[in-house]
Design brief:
It is an enzyme of class 2 (transferase). The chain is about 45% helix and about 15% strand. It is an alpha/beta fold. Helix 2 packs antiparallel against helix 9 and helix 4 (about 55-75) runs parallel beside helix 8 (about 160-180). Bound molecules: 5-amino-5-deoxy-1-O-phosphono-D-mannitol. 5-amino-5-deoxy-1-O-phosphono-D-mannitol (M6R) binds near residues 56 and 156.
Length: about 375
């Protein structure tokens, strides 16, 4: 039940610190990631030369963050394939390919068919799933469960942050097994994981009212754009999907570098644009590129709403609004940056008088192809 919350979505957004903490719990020992479900699979992880992550919708955006984590830590080429595109061509997969599927429900037909197809082609399959005993994990060689708890609202929120968390754990684990992550790197990443729930709670506590107020002012907006680079890109896509799904407003997410290749033509005075700003501590270059993107859209009259880490003053001269997230490692930032976007979509839908839990035309679990 909703337990006093106005909607399941509001409850589930608020439950995100626990969703992350519960997904990490029992999987860390002495600065190392230990995933009991993956015991005995070290040879498999040493033998693979390619990872394909397959999923639909929000889970496919978690997959994009997972790609970066697996490539950075495990040093294995990783690609993301939308499950419904995967088997309608002739993908290059074989026994050295690990196909990781991501599904909250574990029943999404498109994703299930992709997993079955991968198995038939001889690939090894690993599922990241939030529902114990669901069909997709049963059809896979291995499973890492997310422990977000039941997600009722159609718009996925806490399952998404738990999926990213599970993929971070998986990337670190495989990196340690393959020797591409040092003990010191592992300990630092584990400390980041342990600090993450508190930081999510901080974003909720400090930015909820601010973001909800922004959404209230924007209830008549017809279109919102989202820009990000690196792991900010999938978060831009997720911010746009949340808004489309529950507030029925046209929204697009772009890789910020694509702007000058077309989308900047959309910018006209007053166009609201959310920009996910990566920390300058991780890459001064990446940060500078995003700040220059902000200047470009600002010069054309965009209304710029920036999501940036605490203390980043470089964004201040060019932003109409600044939403702050705590300092975190580069691959951990998406878990924090998505929270304001979820709150924005929810508050905007609420301001329009819509039912955020049951958006039109959508089902929680898509069990048809
Ligand atoms: O249950 P799954 O994770 O397999 O669902 C995949 C998508 O259908 C799902 O994430 C969908 O995009 C959500 N409604 C997004 O909020």
């Amino acid at each position: 039940e909703k337990g006093g919350w106005p909607s399941f979505m509001a409850k589930e957004v608020a439950e995100q610190p626990e969703a992350v903490a519960n997904t990490v719990r029992g999987r860390i020992r002495d600065g190392e990631v230990v995933i009991p479900e993956l015991d005995g699979l070290d040879d498999l992880f040493r033998g693979i030369d390619r990872v394909i992550i397959t999923a639909c919708g929000t889970a496919s955006y978690a997959a994009l963050v997972g790609k970066y984590a697996i490539e950075q830590w495990a040093r294995i080429p990783a690609d993301v394939e939308l499950a419904h595109e995967f088997r309608y061509r002739d993908p290059v997969i074989g026994e050295n390919t690990l196909v990781v599927s991501i599904s909250q429900s574990g029943e999404t037909m498109d994703t299930l068919m992709a997993v079955k197809y991968a198995r038939e082609r001889g690939a090894r399959t690993l599922s990241v799933c939030n529902t114990q005993g669901a069909t997709i994990p049963r059809e896979s060689d291995a499973v890492v469960y997310t422990h977000a708890g039941p997600e009722v609202a159609v718009a996925s929120t806490k399952a998404f942050v738990a999926q990213i968390t599970a993929l971070l754990l998986l990337g670190l684990h495989v990196g340690r097994v393959r020797g591409s992550v040092s003990a010191a790197e592992s300990a630092a990443a584990v400390a980041e994981l342990e600090a993450l729930p508190g930081k999510v709670a901080k974003v909720l506590a400090e930015e909820q009212a601010h973001v909800a107020q922004l959404a209230g002012w924007m209830a008549d907006t017809r279109s919102v754009l989202f820009l990000g680079r690196h792991v900010g890109y999938p978060i831009a896509l997720e911010g746009a999907l949340k808004l489309k799904e529950i507030s029925y407003i046209h929204a697009e997410g772009f890789a910020a570098g694509e702007l000058k290749h077309g989308p900047i033509a959309l910018i006209e005075p007053g166009q609201p644009v959310f920009v996910l700003v990566p920390s300058p501590r991780h890459s001064a270059l990446l940060h500078a590129k995003v700040v220059s993107n902000i200047q470009e859209i600002r010069a054309r009259g965009a209304r710029v709403i920036v999501i940036a880490e605490e203390g980043d003053a470089a964004v201040l001269p060019f932003a109409d609004e600044v939403i702050r997230i705590p300092l975190a490692g580069a691959l951990f930032e998406p878990v924090l940056a998505v929270v304001p976007l979820q709150i924005f979509a929810m508050a905007l839908a609420t301001a329009k008088g819509l039912d955020v839990d049951q958006p039109r035309n959508l089902a929680k679990s898509v069990t048809v192809e």
